[in-house]
């Protein structure tokens, strides 16, 4: 696909509008948190981005420009060598948001990388929705219009660059009564902590939530402590379900890291 336009939505968020003949082969899943792999020119590695919108002629991705990174540095370019007009590769779309038909409410929690998905999800559901959005200091005003009107939004300040404190926030949420759905995405170590909380303290079935690690924090980053492959295979061989396998993986990660919430890999990597 071709980058048709680049718009600076806020200091930290850049909109890339993709189109051109390559768009003809794109098929949306219709799942509101759907994502694609984006491969920028002269690269072979991909990074995942949420499809903020797709109308058949334009595909919109909203990219967080953080400190350093392959896509972040490319997307930041303006002037000579700017991204408009460049050709990128976009992989097949996938999604995981699966709110049960009986859900009466929806809670969405995420950092800046989750804003595109939270906005699209909030636009697509009809149940009462609450949003907790963690954004860089001072960014909530310019981002206020990014989310659709309707849901009650709590803006949270990100503790620092490459950091997130969403796990603590979620542990303090007053859960609504009755059946609902919880969706959350952001920094991977935070997501791991929340999965544990939902399984162990709230004892939710895995159908009641979707928690995705979108990126890995830089603070105290170290090589992946536990390889998920063998844990997954051993769990499957033992007839365990996904929840139980995640719990095994989390326990081994904690043991390897001495309970430190660091080094999460992009575990939700599709
Ligand atoms: C399903 C899914 C959907 C996603 N949707 C979006 C989306 O719509 N918009 C979006 O911006 N991102 C989204 N992400 C997150 C995005 O894929 C990662 O942030 C990715 O690492 C960014 O690539 P990069 O090339 O800029 O940085 P990388 O080259 O991957 O990383 C470079 C360094 O930056 C750090 N880093 C990566 N991301 C961040 C960040 N956000 N803040 C601070 N430090 C960071 C890394 O730890 C690393 O040290 C999504 C991820 C997934 C799995």
- Please report which band the strand proportion falls in: under 5%, 5-15%, 15-25%, 25-35%, 35-45% or over 45%: 25-35%
**Might you state the CATH topology name of the largest domain?**
Rossmann fold
CATH architecture of the largest domain: 3-Layer(aba) Sandwich
Count of individual domains: 2
Structural class: alpha/beta
CATH homology superfamily name of the largest domain:
Nucleotide-binding domain of ferredoxin-NADP reductase (FNR) module
Characterize the largest beta sheet: strand count, sense, and whether it forms a barrel: 6 strands, antiparallel
The total count of helices amounts to 7
* Oligomer class: single chain
Order of helices and strands: EEEEEHEEHEHEHEHEHH
Indicate the percent of residues in helices: 10-25%
Highest CATH level, the class of the largest domain: Alpha Beta
| Total strands | 11
Unreliable sequence segments: 259-270
* Order of neighbouring strands in the sheet with most strands: 1-2-5-4-3-6
What bound compounds does this protein have?
flavin-adenine dinucleotide
End-to-end span in angstroms? 21 Å
Query: What does the average pLDDT come to?
Result: 89
Overall outline: globular
């Amino acid at each position: 696909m071709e980058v048709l336009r680049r718009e600076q939505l806020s200091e930290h968020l850049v909109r890339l509008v993709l189109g051109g003949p390559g768009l003809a082969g794109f098929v949306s899943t219709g799942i509101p948190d759907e994502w694609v792999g984006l491969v920028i020119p002269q690269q072979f590695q991909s990074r995942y981005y949420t499809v903020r919108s797709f109308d058949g002629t334009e595909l919109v991705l909203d990219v967080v420009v953080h400190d350093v990174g392959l896509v972040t540095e490319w997307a930041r370019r303006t002037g000579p060598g700017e991204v408009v007009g460049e050709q990128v590769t976009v992989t097949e779309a996938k999604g995981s948001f699966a709110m049960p038909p009986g859900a009466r409410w929806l809670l969405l929690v995420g950092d800046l990388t989750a804003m595109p998905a939270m906005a699209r999800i909030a636009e697509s559901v009809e149940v009462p929705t609450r949003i907790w959005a963690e954004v860089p200091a001072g960014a909530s005003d310019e981002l206020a219009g990014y989310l659709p009107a309707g849901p009650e939004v709590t803006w949270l300040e990100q503790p620092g660059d490459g950091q997130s404190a969403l796990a603590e926030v979620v542990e303090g949420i007053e859960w609504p009564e009755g059946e609902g759905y919880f969706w959350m995405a952001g920094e991977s170590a935070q997501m791991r902590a929340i999965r544990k909380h939902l399984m162990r303290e709230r004892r939710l079935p895995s159908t009641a939530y979707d928690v995705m690690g979108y990126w890995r924090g830089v603070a105290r980053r170290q090589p992946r402590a536990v390889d998920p492959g063998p844990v997954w295979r051993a769990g499957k061989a033992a007839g365990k379900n996904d929840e139980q396998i995640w719990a095994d993986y989390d326990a081994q990660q904690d043991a390897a890291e001495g309970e430190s919430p660091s080094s999460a890999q992009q575990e939700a990597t599709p």
